[in-house]
Amino acid sequence: MSERSLILVVEDNEPNQMLFQAVLDLEGFAVEVVGSAPEALDRITQSRPDLILMDVQLPGQDGLSLTRELKRNPATASIPVVALTAHAMSGDRELALRAGCAGYIAKPIETRTFGAVVGQFLRAAGGERRVAAK
Fold it and tell me: Which whole-number Å values give the CA distances from 8 to 90, 94, 102, 114, in the listed order?
């Protein structure tokens, strides 16, 4: 049996946390969920994720500033980060990309395709280090 890709979800909204976890679990990913930037930094030092799904609007330090911090650190710079935001406005994608995100997913998510989209980001970032196993 192959080890599953680890996705770190950084999201402060509890219903969204539960939804993202459920959908990604069903797709065969290992999922860890945190609700703030400090929790994310702590978790990343404990277990290196294969991909980070980053809410843009976090309490305290926002997701894009955390992404910039991760990209400046050689120990975390190679971890792909995908922005998650309900603010799907013109220019938001560019802001996320400039912060170092590999891409952008608008909320609310499309539950039927979310897992596949996450898998595409993993492959686009250089391939899955661990293959999702169903």
Answer: 26, 22, 15, 15
DSSP codes, 75-93 = TTTTS-EEEEES---TTHH
Instruction: Answer whether 0.85 is exceeded by the pTM.
Output: yes
Half-sphere exposure of residue 5: CA atoms within 13 angstroms, side-chain side: 28
At 87-134, the pLDDT tens digits run 667 678 889 999 999 999 999 999 999 999 999 999 998 755 444 444
103: helix, strand or coil: strand
CA 24 – CA 64 distance, rounded (Å) = 22
Span 34-41, mean pLDDT?
98
What is the Cβ-side half-sphere exposure of residue 67, based on CA atoms within 13 angstroms?
Answer: 29
> What is the spatial distance between Cα 87 and Cα 94, in angstroms, rounded to a whole number?
13
